[in-house]
Amino acid sequence: MSSSVAPADLPVPGRSDRDDTSYELAQEGATKTKRVKQRLTSRGATIAALIIAVVWTLPTFGLFVSSFRPEDEIRNNGWWTIFQNPGFTLANYQDVLLSSSASSPQLGSYFVNSLAIAIPGTLFPLVLASLAAYAFAWIKFKGSNALFILVFALQIVPLQMALIPLLQMFSLGLRFGETQILPGLPAGNYAQVWIAHTIFALPLAIFLLHNFISEIPGEVIEAARVDGAGHGQVFFRIIIPLALPAIASFGIFQFLWVWNDLLVALVFSGGTPDVAPLTQRLAELTGSRGQEWQRLTAAAFVSLVIPLIVFFSLQRYFVRGLLAGSTKG
Fold first, then answer.
1. Which of 100, 133, 177, 261 places its Cα 20 to 30 Å from the Cα of 198?
2. 12 lies in some domain
3. Full-prediction pTM beyond 0.70?
4. How far out from the chain centre does Cα 169 lie?
């Protein structure tokens, strides 16, 4: 009686059991990836994404329509009645951009203030977080794990809890007993706002950049060290180019957060017009009883110009940063 052997059970010359296991794991991973892709690209997921996009965009579209409507139309009719009660005007944008009256000053100086706050408020935490993330990932020192956990835990501290202590430190300085370690900073300057934004952004920035930098293959770092490269050369010539997508992604988020921030700028700028950002002026444009709605809608869309330029300029890095790590493992 002869027994037959299935072709799949026959041994393949030059192929070990380890190769078979790797092949099976690869096939299983490809099957899981295909299954997840099918779920994400299913008809139900597409319909849900379209519904979310419409719900999210509809109020913004309403504000855009209202920014071109006269004041009387805004007060008496909703923006959705634009076809029944048509009426468009550019007076709202002219009032916001060109008027120099006390009730509606030009937004140019506030644009400069917002740029002077947002650019350093984005660069400072990125530089410090990149250095710290590299140190936590590739420089082993005593207590590094505990220190990293402490930095990670700082993310749960509400921003509002730190406003008053930080403001006291800025105004009175930092003292240790009878010794004055740091002098107080004068109120109403950019330095206070820069330091505040940097402090609040560092925990999340260090955590995110550390996760990306630690995934860089160790062979690349070791090869650079064998060639005589120090930590500075490794950081600037290897880490920065490879981590550029992650740095750009967080830079976009940080810039948008600082640009749209009102609380931190209002507390640490002292409310002075020389340092006040654009968001503070937008809050004032509503009037004492919210009757200047037409100005607020126009000014809001004027303030969107810079964030849109930043996003579309760094869009390719942003997408690469979001997808980074999705094909690893």
1. 177
2. no
3. yes
4. 27
